[in-house]
Amino acid sequence: MATLHYTQSGQGEPLILLHSGGMSGAEWTPQIPLLARHFRVVVPDHLGHGRSPDDRREADRRGHGPGGAGIAG
After folding, report:
1. Number of folded domains in the chain?
2. Residues contacting residue 29 through CB under 8 Å, at least 6 positions apart
3. Does some domain include residue 10?
């Protein structure tokens, strides 16, 4: 099973920031400190982006694998 890389900062209700295609979670770096004052900010790298592996065998028909299950739990 592929495992998504993600970072988290802050405490409170989870706020998941998804990156655009061809990028990585690093594009949210400037916004994270402010948002982390109020939320638990979770920033995943989609499969094949940033530090997440490119394991398309584990991806489902929508292009997302099970690796993100429980990320906000």
Report:
1. 1
2. none
3. yes
Q: Which domain holds residue 50?
A: 6-59
Task: Name the residue with higher pLDDT: 2 or 19.
Answer: 19
| DSSP, residue by residue, 30-70 | TTHHHHTTTSEEEEEPPTTSTTS---GGG--TTS--GGGTT
17 CB burial (10 A radius; 0-12, 13-18, 19+):
middle
> Is residue 20's pLDDT more than 90?
no
Residue 32 tokens, joined: 């994270």
| Bridge partners (DSSP) listed for residue 9 | 41
As a whole number of angstroms, the distance between CA 59 and CA 56 comes to: 5
- Confirm whether 42 is domain-assigned: yes
| Cβ atoms 12, 42 nearer than 8 A | no
